[in-house]
Write a structure and sequence with these properties.
Elements lengths: L6 H20 L3 H26 L16 E11 L2 E9 L1 H24 L6 H20 L3 H19 L6 H32 L4 H7 L5 H18 L8 H4 L5 H10 L4 H8 L6 H22 L5 H21 L3 H28 L17 H15 L5 H14 L5 H27 L16 H16 L13 H6 L13 H27 L11 H4 L4 H46 L7 H24 L1
Antiparallel strand pairs: 1-2
Helix pairs in contact: 1-2, 1-4, 2-3, 2-4, 3-4, 3-10, 3-14, 3-18, 4-5, 5-6, 5-10, 6-8, 8-11, 8-12, 10-14, 12-13, 12-17, 13-14, 13-16, 13-17, 14-15, 14-16, 14-18, 15-17, 15-18, 16-17, 16-20, 17-20
Amino acid sequence: MVELVWLIPALPLAGFAILLLAGPRLGEPRAGWLATAASAGSFLLTLITFGGLLGLDSAAEGGAGGHGGRWFVSTLFEWMPIGGLEVDAALLVDPLSMTMALFVTGVGTLIHLYSVGYMGGDPKYSKFFLYLNLFLFSMLMLVLGENLVVTFLGWEGVGTCSYLLISFWHERPTAATAGKKAFVTNRIGDFGFMVATFLLWTSLGTVSYIGIAAVSGALATGTATAVSLLLLLAAAGKSAQLPLYVWLPDAMEGPTPVSAMVHAATMVTAGVYLLVRLNPVLTDDALLIIAIVGAATALFAALAAVAQHDIKKVLAYSTVSQLGYMFLAIGSGAYVAAIFHVVTHAFFKGLLFLGSGSVIHGLGDEQDMRRMGALRAVMPITAVTFIVGWLAIAGVPPLSGFWSKDEILLAAWEQPDLGPLLWAVGLVTALLTAYYMSRQTFLVFFGGQRWDDGTHPHESPATMTLPLVLLAGAAAIGGIMNLPLVKDWLVLEHFLEPVLAHPHHFSSGTGTKLLLALVAIVAALVGIAVAVRAWLQARISTDRLEPALLENVFYVDSTISNFVGGPGTKAFEAAATADRRFVDGAVNGVAKLVGVLGQAVAPLQSGYLRHYASGVAVGAIVLVVWLALRGVS
């Protein structure tokens, strides 16, 4: 059944086409239900294709190869036969692509369903679902692409949809600005992607993932390191790592389902996917840099999250921090741990974003947590499911977040160069995560009522609460896909290993593993305990926990804005002036000189034949005289 893989992206593309042509006529809620059906059909086809992949004989054709393990390539058509460059529009079915496609379509379907209720009454209702289906198509092309060019098609597609969805309410200046900020920042990452692709093509003669994996050993060390760092640049742009994280917090200007699907569960993991997909070319030096960038980003964003007041901004910085964890895992060589956290993060962070959207919906678009409180009584389903997400991301066992985060911390501990330091940074980040998520939960659902008397909070409709319940279940038990307690329970690890050039195997003994896990649990409980004393019992001054430095995110964003709006603008204006005076001046000067010369000789072009004949005769006489004089001399 793997031959059906082309239908997985085709369904959301068909939904996009129908909504483009007839969306306004379908109206609310039929446009939403159509888009949701397209997404659900794509999820069902992904399950069928996944079953077909499991049924492939790894020893048969289309099974084991240079890529390793089970795989199948579906070639749609020959796309770019240019000289020695042959690029097919082809899709790759293998363990990594199927893992990504399963959670992209599964979580995506729940977010589509949630949006049917959340976007009710919006004048651009059908357009929102049109963008959402186009995004799902693009994300599927990204993860299913058989080569870098097809992946880049999806890469640019999700970037475009991100811009359209962030600035969906473009009547708000902040939303329009946020969309442009995301678009421009991601172009920096795109540069890295393109140059890395060019280097791989010129060095290996292929852009196919299977081909790259088969001949990656032919890459010179310097070239491989350059490619690795360029891929890190690409991934840092899409997955919001330092210093290119600045677009993601502002992306919260888009509707909350966008925050959940695009900027928490799917698109922002594209950078993680790219690095894992091209793991055969990553060098040890580059991996160390990736680990450092990931650890620094995780800690930086966690510190920023502790002092935010907007319910979605807390989750935005939390997302940046958790993506840092994934980069830390990749840099430590633990690719399975990175993908494991990608999946569990999709569950609990998608749940938390949708839960925050439910709160915003129930409070009449209020997003300031200081105007919330005591909502567990009036929004019980939202409260219970949000609490599950809180405990999962906080790393409380046996919820899913504990297992994936614990693997990353263990991998960091075993990192050969800076292991203990990276582990310590990850542990502090885990403590901060437990603290700021506890703070958010207590401010929103516990304590006293802080909303206006004229506000009447209410539970969300079933189209919104059903996805919350399903995601809460996944966040609670999702860890079973890769439990380290018994070797046979490492399902995800055994499934993904054939895709990895150098599978990571933990070398620590059982005692060390248990000790590190216990320390991580204690760190999470300490973070929760501090939040309880500060935000529930009022025994710690909360002002001291929210310094202006953290609330303003170390003034990084404001510094960039001030520079761009001040010296940066003046520098650009000066460059434009120099361009007009010197570059344009030189070009225009040449044009003017040619014009003057043309005017000077214009009288010679009278248009009368007798004048031209006279000129020829005079020229002939002059030539004869000149030749005669040369002969005399």
